[in-house]
């Protein structure tokens, strides 16, 4: 863990922020509690699939890139 800390400290503040964002993403992705279903285990995300909006799912793939362009376009 010390090696990881050293490498993160050597990054610019902007890249450190990206590392933090990625770690928070991983924690959110893998920390969802599991719920039992009749046919086996099902994740909370899987149980909410019936509420998914297919139009927004298609936009998900490019949403991060588009938001980065918006954020940094004015610089």
Structure notes:
With 75 residues, this protein is mainly alpha-helical. It contains four helices and two strands, in the order H-H-E-E-H-H. The longest helix is centred in the C-terminal third of the chain and has 20 residues, at 54-73.
Span of the ends, CA to CA: 35 Å
- N-to-C SSE string, H for helix and E for strand: HHEEHH
How would you classify the quaternary structure? single chain
The whole-number mean of residue pLDDT values reads: 77
Tell the overall outline. flat
The percentage helix is 55-70%
Strand content: 5-15%
Number of strands: 2
* Structural class by secondary-structure content: mainly alpha
Uncertain runs are none
Number of helices: 4
| Spatial sequence of strands, sheet with the most strands | 1-2
Rg for CA atoms:
18 Å
Short description:
The chain has 75 residues and is mainly α. It has helices at 2-9, 13-30, 44-47, 54-73; strands at residues 34-37, 40-43.
Element layout with pairings:
Elements: H1 2-9, H2 13-30, E1 34-37, E2 40-43, H3 44-47, H4 54-73
Antiparallel strand pairs: 1-2
């Amino acid at each position: 863990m010390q090696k990881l800390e050293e490498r993160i400290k050597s990054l610019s503040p902007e890249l450190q922020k990206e590392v933090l964002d990625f770690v928070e993403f991983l924690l959110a992705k893998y920390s969802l509690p599991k719920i039992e279903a009749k046919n086996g285990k099902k994740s909370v995300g899987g149980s909410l699939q019936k509420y998914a909006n297919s139009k927004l799912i298609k936009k998900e793939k490019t949403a991060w890139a588009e938001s980065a362009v918006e954020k940094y376009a004015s610089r």
